[in-house]
Structures are given as C-alpha cells and as structure tokens.
Amino acid sequence: MSTKQITARCQLQQTMSSRSSPLAPVLVLLMMLSGCVTYNQRMSSFEQNLSTGNLQPALTDLDKQTNGDKKSAILFDLNRSLILRLQREFDLSNQSLERAKSALQPLLAISLSEQTLASAINDQQRTYLPHGFEQIYIHVFKILNYVALNDLPAARVEVLQMDVTLNRLNEKNPIPAQNAFPRYLSGVVFEMAGEWDQALIAYRKALISFQESQQSPPKFLILDMLRLMDHLGLHAERARLQKRYAVTVWTTQKIYQQQGQLLLLIAEGLAPIREEAAIQAVDPKDGELYRISIPRHQNRLNLTRTPRFQVSQTQYSSDLLANMNSIAEQTLTHQIPAITARAVARVAVKHRVVKESTQEAPILGLIANVATVASERADTRTWASLPSGWWAVKIPLEAGEYQVRPLFASQTQTVPIRISPGDFRLMVYHRLGTNTIFGL
Prior knowledge:
Layout: H1 3-18, H2 24-33, H3 39-42, H4 44-51, H5 55-66, H6 73-86, H7 90-107, H8 112-120, H9 132-148, H10 152-172, H11 180-192, H12 196-212, H13 219-231, H14 235-245, H15 253-258, E1 260-268, E2 273-282, E3 289-298, E4 308-311, E5 314-317, E6 319-323, H16 324-360, H17 362-374, E7 389-397, E8 400-406, E9 415-419, E10 424-433, E11 436-439
C-alpha cells in the first residue's frame, strides 16, 4: 500500500471516528481489514523456498510472517518444525511441535469473541485451529523425531497420546483414511519395543482403517499380522485373515527375530493448499454489493506414482500408506457446510451495517459497502509443508552390510547401513521437489 493510500485511509478513519455514530468503530475496523490478502499469497515465498530445498531462507520467511500474525502462530510452529526436521535438528523440531500441541488444547473451544469477529469480518480473524489430520501429524512427526534420536520410550509415550487424539477425532468426525498410516506407525513403535500384543492391536486398527477407506492394505502389514497372530496363539483369527488375503507363506516370529528389518518411509511432495473462491453480486434495487468467499481444495504436483528403492542389488517398490490429497479434500468437504453458514451470516451482518450507514449519510453507506466486500476473505490457512502422500516398503534382511539408494530422483546418494539380528531400522525420505530429497 502506498504512502498516499495509507494517509487517505487514516484521514477517512479519523473522520468516521469523530462521528458519534455507534457504527463508526465497526467501519474503522472494516476499513483496516479491507486490504487483507489470503494466507497463501503471503506464504508464496516460503513455499517456493521449501519446494526447492532452500531451508534457511524458508525459515527466514516464516520468522517475518510470525511477527505480524499472532492468530496463525501455531501454524508457523508447525511449518517451522518440518524445516528443522529436514535440517536434522530433531530436538528443535520437537520443541516447535510441542509448542503447537500445547497451544492446541485451548483452541478446541473457540472463544465467543472470536466466533463473533469471524461472523462480522471473515474467518481469517479466528486463531488458527489445525484441521483434524494436522493434529494427528503433530504426533506422527514427534514420533519420527524421537525414533531418529533413538529415544524409543519417548516415541512410545507419543504413540499413546496420538491414540487419544485419534479416538477423539473419530468420535466427532471420522475420516478412516487419516487413521491408517498413524495406526501402522504405532504398531512399528510397539514392535521396536518388543510389545508384540500391542503391535498387533495397532496393526488391526490400521487394517480396519484401510478397509473402511476402501484402500488396499500393504502386503507387509498382512504378513506382520499373520506372524504376530501365530506367535500369540490366535490361530482362528490368523486363519480368517489368511483366507481373506490368500496368503500361504509368511515368516515365523523366531526367524523374524533372527533377521533384521528395514522400513523405508517416503514423504512425497507437498500437501494440497486451499484457494479462495468468491461469489459477488449486485442488488439491482439499490446497487449494494454482496460477496461470499469460501476456500476450495487445490492439489499440488504429485511427483511420482510409485517410489522405488535399490538395496544392494535388489530393487523394491513401495506401497501407498496415506493419500494426503484425498484426506485434505475429505476434511474440507466436512467443513464446507459450517464455513458456508458463517459466510451467509456475515452477509446479513454486513448488509445491516451498510443499510444503517446509508441512513446516516450516503457516502458512509458507500464506504461501508466497499469495506464489507473487501474484508470478505476465505480462510485458506493449512499446514502446507506436510507431504501429499506417504509410501513405504518393508524389507527383511539377513545380518550384514547393505547399500540403500532411492530410485525416484536423478540426484541421490547411496547410504551404507549395517543390519544385525533383531534390528529394526527406520529410514525416512522427504521428497519436496523433482530433485529435492532429504534422507533422515
């Protein structure tokens, strides 16, 4: 905004403030907010730096935005946590995630004052409450960070806390697809801890989520469940699962513990964003402008169909665990009725302001109409640094040394690993752009 525009706006605000009308404060507020841009417009530089792997400039972009937007502070912490994770600052990443998690609880009951402001101005005036799947992934990334830090007890505690979050969200607004990967990850942590019965419980829940979302479960999940059912003496349940998925051979628990296990996770691409969709109309009777703005789902480029790996001389294809594009779209679909209802309510509130302002003075009515239309913006905030999908491949390996190389980008490094009997090795790859890969 130019200096002349700022000066003109200040003079107009002073003029309206000098009036004795009770509408004056409302008009001043609307004018102050009439130049608002959407969240995605403000974050374009951050997303560009992130997708190209320029992590430090991306952090700088976040710091600039944080200073001017306290209502989105939790979202900045979430984005910051992933940048820090990619920089291998796992402790600092968890600190950002913990701040976000601590700030989440009070937000579950949005204050009456914020609801009123959202009804009068726009949804961007509300303190950001992470969407359901975003709340789950606070736990997911804390778990992955703890595993990277070799702090299995802390990872286990986070799994238990994630279970509480999953149960709360499933009671309120179930989206089975958002549960499958977190439930599977819970089973992995329990297996790492040698808690075979708890691992099977988590795997069961993961399988149910895959089935309810009509997504094929990865074969390694079925094989792990068959192995654990045999080990725990659940032969009837094992027979039913074996028949349903037509599996005849799997590894026994004894052999499993003599081998090592390599689990490769791929966080693919960047999560979908929300864009603004606005409808404007003019009342033919009095010329008053009306505007309704709601968010719409926008996928970003999917980088590959099936990530593949080479471990020494053998190649492996991965299985899809979570389609974040679909999960985000389902989430918005559930939210649209309430979002639309608030937008329609705002039209009524703003119409009353315009009508009463016009009765005082036609020029005030015109100013009010322009301000109410300009301040109507959709809330497009999301945790945009999340991946667009999660893929995995699980490989049983005999004790020895191996070379791990991802095959889904032209510029990748081979990572040497050593596997001992009973090892469970988890490696995570983040692929943000065509050749922007971080192996953790």
